[in-house]
Amino acid sequence: PPLSPCTALMLSSDSVPTLSPYSSVPSSCPGPVAGQPPGPKTWPRKHCSGRRQSPVALWADRSVPASHFKVLEMSGYENPTLPIKVTNDGHSANVNLRPGAWLSGGGLSGNYTAQSFHLHWGKGLNFPGAEHLLEGTRASMELHVVHTKDGLPMNKAVKLKDGVVVLAFMTNVSDPSPSEASWNDFTSFLGLVPEKDNEQPVFGNFSLKGLLGAVKTLHYYFYQGSLTTPLCQEVVSWIVFREPILLSSLPRVRNFTSSLFYTTASEGRRMVNNFRPAQPLGRRKVLRL
């Protein structure tokens, strides 16, 4: 389906949205209100205004075939003992992982260890909140699995130009899928971490593979970009899968928009529209499989 008027009010000549949930929007759109946390327009320009920023809009006819890529190898993602805890970090629900899942092949320069995963979302189905746009369409949510080179801690990985790899999976609501049970388990923890800095152990409850379900990982976009929150370091190799995760239950999506707050429940600032708008691609090359 096409983008809703509130998520794609304006497109530049290269189809990058120039208006975001953090910009001024019509009163009918679910943008921030007074008192909500500042968004990208207030981020330090010296950190988040480079030429290799993420996310971006991705189009098949503006990408280059990557027939020379090796097979992308994903190991250990089926292990349900890897998730350690879920934390409300004030930006998303972040799940830390113990070592045991790793990534190699594709266009990568080495082996990368999965460190954590989190999501970005909008405000329900009518106002989707994925960060990357695929063929001009914004999915309901976007799952990011963050990896670091050779298992380095994040603070060291961001100092290397190829230190971080993020796997990005779009999520949409559709027919029942094999991933439903894992998503039920995962989202059941959201109500236990409503406020910033709340944590909850999740040992052995679900796996990354369970969340991905039947998604085929053969087809994806690959480009060089940045983290999508400050300090927006331009050290990320992005692998954005073209096939979405399908969730059959609308309540799964609503759990994210209704369970979490940016700060405290008493302040009442629900965690919605926690995605960064698309950034200019510039001269970067996007490869596709």
UniProtKB/TrEMBL annotation:
Signal peptide: none annotated. InterPro entries: CA_dom, CA_dom_sf, Carbonic_anhydrase_a-class. Residues 30-289 form the Alpha-carbonic anhydrase domain. Pfam families: Carb_anhydrase. Residues 21-48 are annotated as: Disordered. GO terms for molecular function: carbonate dehydratase activity; zinc ion binding. It comes from the Eukaryota. PANTHER family: CARBONIC ANHYDRASE, CARBONIC ANHYDRASE 14. Belongs to the alpha-carbonic anhydrase family. This is Alpha-carbonic anhydrase domain-containing protein. It comes from Ornithorhynchus anatinus (Duckbill platypus). The gene is LOC103166717.
